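G., before I forget:
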Amino acid sequence: MSDIAAVATGWGLTFVVVATYALWVVGRGKTIGRELGIGKRQELGPGSDSSTPASS
Amino acid sequence: MSQIPDSKHMTATLGTRILGSVAVAAVLLMTLLGLVVSPEDLVQGHAVRMLYLHVPSIWIAYAAFVLTAASSVLFLIRSRSRADGGRHHDRLAGSAAEVGVLFAGITLVTGMLWGRVTWGTYWQWDARLTTTVLLFVTYLGYLALRRLPADPIVRGRRSAVMALISFVNVPIVHFSVDWWRTLHQKASLSVGRRPEITGEMYWTLLYSTLTVTVVASWLIVHRYRVIRLEELRDEEALNALIASRLREDDVGN
Amino acid sequence: MLHEVLLVARKDLRVEWRSKVTIGQVAPLALLVLVVFAFAFDANARLLGLGAGGLFWVAVLFGGTLLIQRAFDLETDDGNFDAFRMSTIGAPSLFLGKSLGVFIQVVLLELVLGPGVALLYDVRIDDWFLLLAAALAGTVAFSVCGVLWGVMAAGVRVRATLLPLLLIPVLAPVLLAGSRAFETAFGVRAEAGWTWASVMFVIAAVHTAIGVGTFGFLLEEG
């Protein structure tokens, strides 16, 4: 393997892995946030009536 | 709850959006400096550019594992006294460990590619490579332990003890493997010693370390918030289940 | 304290004595591993002789993991941890007692494996004292680490796969040190076997201290 090919592989893989992880984290946050109905119910305090979740 | 903002940007706040933008800009500059501006090494040639990712990654991995260990100790101390069971520390430990594993993996891949070019082989059984691969697997195990379904506080305590042991074990692993065999370029960035990498290469390395730190901070903060959302979701699911059981009981009676 | 430790260890050993799983199943299985190693090395007597120290410890690790699994399945199946929590036996005593129980069972395993390695791999022992010291240190380190991780993986459905994943990286220095010390004791390596034996004593001491300090956290519920 030439040194340029190795550098390209290393940098390329790193960028792909970090970007994928970042997108996964943000996407997961959005999915769960939607499930929880954040936005529809601005106040999600610990005292709120959680027996009727907005998603069901 | 104030940490969880409106629906459009679930895990983002103004602070992290600024941090994210800085990170993206810094990465662009890092790419330019690392791949274009900085010169080739006389001995290593282009392969030296791998170190601009390799060295910062291992620094972040270690820093993240230190954060995990410190948070775990705080969690163990406070889990009995605080109302929320010190779960803030548990979340921080978990998010830091995950980012640490990510960068430990990057360290291994870039290190192996660098080794292929410089040593002519992907793998050498030298002290730091062996320690890093053991560290990587150890924290993969830690993440597996965290994923188990269990009471959050019980799981938190188990993970915290594991983080503590794993951390104490790092020097033990390192020294034992070091005595076993030593065959590695000396540390590239070290305080108090004249670095072997000099001039533009040294500054590029320093700058990329800073950049990767910013990127990792952004990742840890976001992962922390997502763990918090996951916990909220689990609590809601549990409450909904209890409520439906109670309703069934009412109907049954 | 000592009384409690012995009480816990005695209970485990009595259960083991009645079922005879260590001697009846785990030890023969570990012997089989020794035979399989010979297949892997094409029955090359020279290679097997050189690697005998390491192969011994790999077989101990394999068999010992099964023993630890069993030591905790016994507790969780009958909800014994709840009984321990209710009893006056302190967490440190419980930890040391469980470790002592595992230690004795692993020693039994090694008493079967040791002659097996010596006979099958044609090993001469140059330094008996080093061999015994290294075996003692390595076995103590293995037992205390095993009990710590055993209780962590106890009671979860995936414990059979989780325990080795957690245990092996932590035991890597013990495997390394044990193998090197045994090689010196077998006279195939001139290096300082005593240094490696002392490394294992340090590891054993560190993990015993951690276990005594943190076992209480691992037992508590919610």
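Residues 71 and 127 of chain B are 28 Å apart (CA to CA). Chain B touches chain A through 47 residues (CB under 8 Å).

More on Monday.
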